Amino acid sequence: MAPSSGRSAEAAQDAGRIRVATLLSCPAKPGSGLGTFVLGLFERLKRRPDLELLLIAPERERGAAGQRGSQLALAWRQFCELRRVRPDVVHVHDHPVLLGAAVAYRMLEAGLPRLIFSSHLDLATPRARWKRLMLGWLMARCTVITVVSHNSAEKLSMMAEPTPRPDVVRVVPGAASVVVREKTDPAVRAYAASIGHGDGPVILQVSNFVYPAKVAGTVRLLEALVQIRRRIPSVRLVVLGSGPLVEQVQAERDRLNLGDAATIPGAFLEDLSLPASLCDVHCHITGQDACPISILEAMHAGKPIVASRVGGIPEILDTGVSGILVDDDADRIARAVVELLENPGAAREMGMRAQAVARSRYTWDRVAADIEAIYRGTESAAAQFGQAVPLGL
Predict the structure, then answer these.
(1) 9-175+363-376 and 186-361 share one CATH topology?
(2) Is-contact 37 174, C-beta < 8 A?
(3) Residue 126 pLDDT
(4) How confident is the model at residue 35 (pLDDT cuts 50, 70, 90)?
(5) DSSP string covering 14-73, please?
(6) In the CATH hierarchy, which fold is given to the domain comprising 9-175+363-376?
């Protein structure tokens, strides 16, 4: 649980640095949208000589939903760590119980540290009223709250009572970067061989198997794959992700007799440039999402995208221009994918337009500038709850 820097608070103050402590309930590593976000943000912010970044995170995921004892134990350890390192800014990602630890620290310090709470999730899950009241009370004690989409900002009032103060909510969309490889790259060919792929087109979906609404989207894509194969028998679907519901998805694949056409290893791949470079169409079919990092990665890779018209996704993709948005219908999903696979020139142009958007808007330099401004208290006052004007766009 030790922070990533061993310098004392006094030394940081003498050097004129702002000391920022980031609280997580899981390790910061690739394999999840949150881990990718924190790593990308740290990579840029550590270049600022007057910022000292401290990461307070367990060695493995702790405090999962429903594990009250584990949640409280993690919150206590992180509260004690905050008392030891005495940061100027505390940044909590997603976990309400850790937000409680940060609020307790801020109150003990007479409100001096800036407290930032970032929600990266689609705020769609109903909560008991006492949870909404508690979340609203905690959020009202934050200096700034960030969300990754306008849609999430609108939903925030339904998740927290009372609604957070209008002047503290900011929309800071995510970012991505990916190595672009050719299909002829030896590493890409080796990856293709490892999944038993031949010469046909490849559809890629990257999504976890934790939330039922996301799993339902993957199942719908499998149903669409049955129809896609009628037009393009050689097509292969690769679904990368992990989570407790993976066996449910694999069972649905087998029920649909797609064992030879759908690869679902039940794990993320650390080097996503391999499947991203192999694929011809990137899909993100889901029942909920806010600002999926996997879509941003596909955009940076210049891939044509078919994605669900839910949550914050329509804020990322302009349908028919930088991607195709679809409803929760296997027929429509299949038609959109087939259209791209049968018209490679149009698909390539769509991917290039998506790439241009990603390179101008969804970059780590932009995210780092937005977050650093929030740390310093110089963020734009125009980005208010209900308006949710994105910083840096």
Answers:
(1) yes
(2) yes
(3) 62
(4) confident
(5) HTTPEEEEEE-SS---SSSHHHHHHHHHHHHHTT-TTEEEEEE--SS----TT-HHHHHH
(6) Rossmann fold (3.40.50)
Residue of 228, 221, 226 lying closest to 286 (CA atoms)? 221
Query: Please, what is the Cα angle at 110 between 116 and 144, to 5 degrees?
Result: 15
Q: How far apart are CA 292 and CA 35, in angstroms?
A: 13
One-letter amino acid for residue 273 of the chain? S
Residue 247 has pLDDT above 80, yes or no: yes
Residue percentage of the chain with pLDDT more than 90: 67
Of 109, 63, 58, the closest CA to residue 82 belongs to 109
Both tokens of residue 278? 């192999």
Please state, in angstroms and rounded to a whole number, the distance separating the CA atoms of residues 135 and 361: 31
CA-CA distances (angstroms) from residue 307 to 32, 65, 160, 289, 367? 19, 28, 29, 11, 23
Residues 219 and 202: their CA atoms lie apart, in Å, by 17
Q: What are phi and psi of 64, to 5 degrees?
A: -65, 165
Minimum mean pLDDT range among 141-145, 270-274, 371-375 = 270-274
What digits encode the pLDDT tens for the residues 7-32? 444 444 445 689 999 999 888 776 67
Asked whether 34 and 68 are in contact (CB, 8 A), the reply is no
What residues contact residue 82 under an 8 Å CB cut-off, 6+ apart?
21, 23, 56, 90, 101, 102, 105
Rounded to whole angstroms, the maximal C-alpha distance in the chain is 68
Residue 241 near residue 206, CB atoms below 8 Å: yes
* Distance from C-alpha of 8 to C-alpha of 259, rounded to nearest angstrom: 56
> What are the boundaries of each domain within the chain?
9-175+363-376, 186-361
pLDDT at residue 375 tops 90: yes
Q: What is the dihedral of CA 262, 265, 266, 271, to 10 degrees?
A: -110
Q: Among 253, 266, 258, which Cα is nearest to 209's?
A: 266
Q: CATH says 186-361 is which class?
A: alpha beta
- Model confidence at 67, pLDDT cuts 50, 70, 90, reads low
Residue 125: what pLDDT? 59
In the beta sheet, which residues pair with residue 145?
117, 169
What CA–CA distance (Å, rounded) separates 50 from 12?
9
Q: Per-residue pLDDT for 289 more than 90? A: yes
* CB 322, CB 314: distance < 8 Å: no
